[in-house]
Structures are given as C-alpha cells and as structure tokens.
Amino acid sequence: MRPISIPASIRQHLQSNSVLLGNVQNIRERFKRLQQGTPEISVVIPAYNEEENILRTLSSLSCTTSQRSLEFIVVDNNSRDATASLVKAVGITCIHEPRQGIAAARNTGLRAARGKLIINADADTIYPPAWIDEMVRPLERSATAVCYGRFSFIPVGNTNRFVYFFYEYAADMLRYFNKFFREEAVNVYGFNSSFRRDQGLEVDGFDHPPQASEDGWLALKLRNKGFGKLHYVTNIRALVWTTDRRNQIDGGLWKALGKKAKRIFLGKR
C-alpha cells in the first residue's frame, strides 16, 4: 500500500535552508557516527546547482539507521551556487567533476568510492532511515546484480498529493509491464538503485550510447554480463520521496505518464 500523505519521518526534512542551516552541526555529528572505519557501502550523489535541495537530502541521509560502515560522496558537477559549500559544511566528501553530465558525475563517484557496494542517490530526494539496509540486502545473494526501488512524489505547485497517489499506482502498473513483458532495466533510476562496485567498474560504469539513460544502461550491462538479475525492492521502508521536476520537464504529470505508456506499448519516444 502506498502512502496517501507524506510520513512524519520524511516531512521533518522538508524545511527551508534557513531552518536546516541552523541544524548543520547536528547533521554533521550524525554523519560522523555513520562514517566510521572502512566503508562497506558508498552512497554516491551527483549534484548540479542543488543549493535549494541538497541540505534536505543530506539531512535525511544523516538519519540513516544502518549499523553498517558507510561513506557518503557528493560529486559537484560544476555547480555555480553554494552546493559544494553546503556539502562540506556537513562533513562529507565533496568531489568536483569538471566534465558536465550525469554519467560523468556518477562515474567519478564510482571510481572514488571505497565501499564494496554502491548506492545511487540524488540531491533532490528524501530518503527514509532504513533505505540503505533495504537496498543492499538483496545484493547479499549472488543471484542479484542490481536493486532498484520505489518512489513517491513530493507535491509541487497546485498539484495535490492525492493526485500523485493515483498517478504512482498507474506508473507502478507500467513498471510491472516492463518487468514481465518488455525490458525491466528501464525501471532502474539513478536516484534509487544499488550494485557491486567491482562489477560496475568491470562494465565501464555508467558509460552509455546516445538515446539511452545512464542508470538503466548500467543495469542492462550488469545483467547481460551474467552478474545476476534485477531485483525490485518494494518494502515500504525503502520508499523514497522525490521532486516532480522530471515530469514537469516532460510537460506535466499526466502528459509524462502518457509518454511513458507510448514508449512501452507503441515504441514511441
């Protein structure tokens, strides 16, 4: 069952920068406790001009409840705002990647990571406390190459959360159609997926051909290389919350869903 409203554990991070800046020391202390010893898991976050969003994301990740050794890496992809300084303020690694583009940023993070397992995150997404553990547990089985998870939308503009609720169920149906009848790799999104670092490097990371997405293409390469199947993580404890800007770029909520349906059923872009 998807939530109709945003849980309190997520809402607490949906604060303005002025509020979150007053809590930077607490965020920093939480990250310090999470980043002790040699990391087993690396959370990699590409960022480009995310001054308005990244503190929310980092605040949520600092509340992670995992007992595993972790590291958090933000790859600053030529931001012209205060993204990098905000990242450094909370005490996590910030790497500058001068080559513009999401694939270049993700590859830089992959190469710099020290953990055996990589989790992909984004700088405009809020993560629940159990997300990391839920996203790596299936990787403990050799039959799994990539994990990808579910997400819900944070309301923007005049769109009511109730509208998103129905949209998300419709989008779920398309994902299951992809999984069983078309190509499951298109369900994999970079802001909510995981894989093994050494295997990712072996298939040249996020490099991809034109017209393909870096996240889905990586999943395809890992599966086709024989590293295992794709695993859809449906546990509500792993549900992440993201902004709607991708759909807005596609022309709005329902227009974006229509485009997805045409790609799946009619092969149209």
Quick summary:
The protein has helices spanning 8-11, 17-21, 24-34, 54-61, 83-89, 102-112, 131-136, 161-181, 197-202, 214-224, 245-249, 253-265, and strands at 41-47, 70-76, 93-96, 117-120, 125-126, 144-149, 151-153, 193-196, 229-233, 240-242.
Would you give an account of this structure?
The chain has 269 residues and is an alpha/beta fold. Helices cover 40% and strands 17% of the residues. It has twelve helices and ten strands. The strands form two sheets. A seven-stranded mixed β-sheet has the order 3-2-1-4-8-6-9, with helices on both faces. Strands 5-10-7 form a three-stranded mixed β-sheet. α4 links the parallel β1 (41-47) and β2. α8 packs parallel to α12. It is globular. The model has no long low-confidence stretch (mean pLDDT 92).
Question: What are the key terms here?
Answer:
three-stranded mixed sheet, seven-stranded mixed sheet, alpha/beta, single chain, 10 strands
Report helical residue fraction: 40-55%
Mean pLDDT: 92
Largest beta sheet: strand ordering: 3-2-1-4-8-6-9
Report the uncertain regions. none
Structure annotation, total helices: 12
Order of helices and strands: HHHEHEHEHEEHEEHEHHEEHH
Terminal CA distance reads: 31 Å
**Sheet/helix structural class:** alpha/beta
Shape: globular
Question: How many E strands?
Answer: 10
Q: What fraction strand?
A: 15-25%
How would a textbook summarize the main sheet? 7 strands, mixed
Which radius of gyration do the C-alpha atoms yield? 18 Å
